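Try this one yourself first.
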């Protein structure tokens, strides 16, 4: 079965870059038509889509975050990385990696979710 695991530092200082890695096992991130997303949930708030990489390696980002966001993939390691620069306390959230067939994801459905990783931005 497919398993998704987020990893990275739990504490980041303001103005620094938040870097997370999503490792997928049991399936290839380059599977045709599959997309892999980063989604976050600030405390007390709803889910917010951050960005996505598709099976071709193309990336797309939330308009509100695109200037600070970079998503990349490592096909050999079956990993998706997230970098969010110039972070502030407003970036504090649980960050999730989620994926599935693009057709379903576009409808708001994700087949696979990581457990999420807490990232706190604080000095």
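Now uncover the answer:
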């Amino acid at each position: 079965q497919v398993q998704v695991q987020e990893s990275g530092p739990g504490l980041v200082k303001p103005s620094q870059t938040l870097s997370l890695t999503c490792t997928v096992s049991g399936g290839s991130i380059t599977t045709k038509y599959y997309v892999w997303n980063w989604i976050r949930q600030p405390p007390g708030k709803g889910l917010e889509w951050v960005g996505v990489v598709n099976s071709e390696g193309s990336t797309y980002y939330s308009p509100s975050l695109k200037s600070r966001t970079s998503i990349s993939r490592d096909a050999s390691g079956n990993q998706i990385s997230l970098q969010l620069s110039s972070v502030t306390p407003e970036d504090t959230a649980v960050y999730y990696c989620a994926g599935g067939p693009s057709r379903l994801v576009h409808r708001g459905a994700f087949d696979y979710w990581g457990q999420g990783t807490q990232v706190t931005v604080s000095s």
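Discussion: The chain has a mean pLDDT of 96. The longest strand covers residues 93-101.
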